[in-house]
Amino acid sequence: MGVGIEVESLNAWFGATQALQDIGMRIAPNHATAIIGPSGCGKSTFVRCLNRMHETLPETRVTGKVRIGEMEVYGDGTPAVLVRRQVGMVFQKPNPFPAMSIYDNVAAGLKLNGFRDRRKLDEIVERSLRMAALWDEVKDALKKKSGASLSGGQQQRLCIARALAVEPNVLLMDEPASALDPISTGKIEDLIFQLKENYTIVIVTHNMQQAARVAEFTGFFLLGRLIEFAKTEKIFTNPSDKRTEDYITGRFG
Amino acid sequence: MRTGSRLPDETFRYAMIACGLSVAVVLGLILYELVVNSSLSLHQFGWRFFISQTWDPVKDQFGALPFIYGTIVSSIVALVLAVPLGVGVALFITEMCPQRLRGILSFSTELLAAIPSVIYGLWAIFVLVPILRLYIEPGLMRYFGWTGLFEGPPYGIGMLAAGIVLAIMVVPIISSLTREVLSAVPRNQREAALALGSTRWEMIRIGVLRNARAGILGAVILGLGRALGETMAVTMVIGNRPEIAKSLLAPGYTMASVIANEFTEATGRLYLSALVEIGLALFLVTIVVNALARLLVWSVTRGLPARVHAQ
Question: Among A111, A36, A51, which residue's Cα sits nearest to residue A81?
Answer without folding.
Answer: A51
